[in-house]
Amino acid sequence: MVQVHLDLSEPQQHLVSVQMQLQPRLRRMRLALPGWTPGSYLIRDYVRLLEGLQVEQGGQRLPLQRLEPAAWLLDCDPEAGALTIRYRVLATELTVRTCHLDHEHGFLALAAVVLELEGERWSPHALSCTVPEGWEAFVPLPLDQGCWQARSFDQLLDSPLEAGPHRPLDFAVHGVPHRLVCWAGAPGEEAWLLQQHPELLEDLRRVCEACCRLMGVDRPASAGYLVILHLVDEGYGGLEHDDSTVLVYGRRNLEKPNGYRRFLQLVAHEYLHQWNVRRLRPTELTPIDYHRAPVVPSLWFAEGVTSYLDQFLPLSAGLTQPDELLIDLGEDLSRYRLTPGRFVQSLRESSQEAWVKLYKADAYSGDSQVSYYLKGAVIALCLDLHLRRCGGSLLQVLRQLWLSHGRWGRGYNEADLIAAFASQAPDLNTQLPRWLQELDDPDLDGYLSSVGLHLEAEMASAPWAGLTTRQEGGCLTAARVLRGGPAEQAGVMVGDELVALDQQRLRNAEDWSRSLQSGQSQTLLISRRSQIRSLSFSPLAPRVERYVLKQVLEPSAEQQDAQRRWLLQQPCGDHPAVA
Description:
Immunoglobulin-like; alpha+beta
């Protein structure tokens, strides 16, 4: 067994002291710190935060040979007693995939903390922790004799740690214990969430049970589940684990009219990952290589299908209304149609290039890429409605893959996905690969029409400038410059200060919109690197500003029935229940 001890007792230093002990079995051993956390596809070089690494055996310090930036070679004597490995990790990044430690709380993504020891990946690991007085640590692992027990290095890394003076909130899903631990920036602040939403735990239970119904199972895949919630001023995101999830959500977002609904969708998304992506996972992630970036062509299924279904789960739980789902779905479809990068990057490419594009997006990324979350959800919608025409549904494909692959930890490849869809609709054997590798869209309008819906374009009131603006320090700057648009043609770059248009001073976005003249050449003054430049700028006629999903007029009985079954995620035909 590998013993891991984490010392968080001096949080004001933002340093986690790590000690690992084991009886070595090899004379020569490789030590390596993972480079990324599963579920967040970016090499993060956690080693940049590691310091003071040293190894002792029998009271003697052993030399380390650095093989790579995050890997070392150690020579030792298996007969000379246990090895003790010590180092520190700086914890100053507050995200769901990094580490953060201060006087209020501690959060550790253990991929950034624990070394992988050669020959010990599949050995049990015992985790213990020292925390400040009044704190408690929470880890989604069984506790035995004061240590959390992980059956392997993989399970340990899949177990985030949250610590602080938190008051855990317990609920059960089909008899399976669940725990919510919330940190909101200061002790006691998590009570604000319950004051705003006293029904929170009941709503979480209902959403989790809706996930079980969707998967056709009678209980969660986990034997116990931990929800860690960081309620911050602004933010949105989550990271899935086998037996837990880490969520970050902004209080300002929660106070918006649709904020609580969006929060429940986030919970549903990460909880559904308990099946889709954690246990039902791509073969390229079976097993996971923590030190390199594997190409995963099917991330669109792992994330896109989950993003599509997460909007239905609060509705299935009886917590939202159908018209609210259509509003949210319409916003996603509008965002997709207004993303120019979908004409440049295919869905398969988006999945394959996640490591170097999606997680490294900048102000120009929208022109050359499309999110596999977003387009994956659009393709999932089209697949669902296509299958429903044939008497099936996306849900049945997901359940089928769970039974054939997920329950057994068997990784799937793209051919497995295509075969599963084609088993219900044979034409998808050739059609789905085209949707994945080509730039042309499926017949989205036709699919929406089959359930009595259509997308209605709304035109912008101002001429099209081909840029978006941002208020920065009292100045108006170019936040995004669209490829091929009037602003790019004029020579505007992201970050330019927009000073004046036709000698009219620009102070805010309203000044900018009001000064634009369609079809006319205008003089735009900008400041770039403290130099004033004059550009000839010609806005074009107004373009579509957004799309709104609406009901068709006088829908047929067939459209109405199809929409009802689709909104409730009911199969179209009679199919046996999934055990």
